[in-house]
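Inverse folding, one chain.
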């Protein structure tokens, strides 16, 4: 990675507005480690980005769609949380220029895209960014996942967007490396926990491969990995890592945060470059 090239990231965004509300009484430190990791990312990255391009597990469209608003509203796409969490703010500006460059790069790669400016940033974007850049002073652009959820397609999208890294844009995949929340409510069985750890180990080993083609092939076959389909009954929260890995080029991935969330399910975060 050159001195001015930004890394790409895969980050966890937690559960709804979890960092801005009281934790469950039986697990008072549930989100502490994850929140501390997100708060430390700006210093860890070092370089200050000109803009952040976020691919969230909470937005799917028929073709990749770029949210190009110069000013953002927020989409409170979570349910049953305390009233104050529906009044959270994050007044970051958009970047129509970065949005246009994103679409141009996709077009050069033969990937059709669309643009919109009214949806608002979902909680997979504004919740973690409130911790990473709390002053909301870095412009934000959001890119959707493509319906069909093909890992190969999202790796291709990442490859197309790689030049943004040399133009001051931080590419962030926002999801969760484990997202079988139904299974893990109440703690989950020991067998379920073992499956989550097996997938986490496989993912950490895979992103660290120095052969980017071998890495891409393994990532594309994630559903056949140990614990893969258990960790992600539906893969929308995993696919952001495909974009981050595709944009990484030959830069290897390293795990920058890891814990057994609630003492049970394995959860990680990764940086490429």
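Residues assigned per position:
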């Amino acid at each position: 990675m050159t001195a001015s090239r930004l890394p790409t990231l895969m980050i966890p965004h937690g559960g709804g507005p979890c960092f801005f509300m009281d934790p469950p009484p039986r697990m008072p430190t549930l989100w502490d480690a994850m929140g501390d990791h997100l708060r430390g990312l700006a210093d860890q990255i070092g370089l200050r980005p000109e803009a952040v391009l976020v691919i969230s597990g909470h937005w799917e469209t028929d073709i990749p769609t770029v949210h190009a608003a110069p000013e953002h509203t927020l989409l409170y796409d979570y349910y049953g949380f305390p009233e104050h969490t529906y009044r959270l703010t994050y007044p970051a500006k958009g970047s129509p220029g970065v949005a246009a460059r994103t679409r141009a790069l996709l077009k050069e790669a033969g990937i059709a895209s669309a643009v919109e400016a009214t949806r608002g940033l979902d909680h997979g974007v504004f919740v973690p960014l409130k911790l990473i850049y709390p002053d909301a002073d870095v412009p934000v652009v959001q890119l959707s996942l493509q319906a069909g959820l093909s890992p190969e397609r999202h790796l291709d999208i990442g490859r197309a967007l790689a030049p943004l890294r040399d133009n001051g844009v931080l590419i962030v995949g926002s999801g969760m490396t484990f997202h079988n929340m139904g299974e893990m409510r109440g703690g989950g069985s020991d067998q379920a926990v073992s499956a989550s750890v097996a997938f986490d180990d496989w993912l950490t080993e895979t992103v660290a491969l120095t052969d980017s083609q071998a890495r891409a092939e393994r990532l594309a076959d994630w559903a056949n990995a140990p614990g893969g389909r258990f960790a992600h009954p539906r893969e929308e929260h995993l696919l952001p890592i495909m974009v981050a890995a595709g944009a990484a080029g030959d830069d290897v991935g390293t795990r920058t945060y890891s814990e057994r969330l609630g003492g049970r399910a394995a959860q990680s975060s990764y940086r490429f470059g």
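The chain has a mean pLDDT of 95. The beta strands are 8-12, 51-61, 65-67, 114-116, 140-146, 169-175, 253-261, 265-272.
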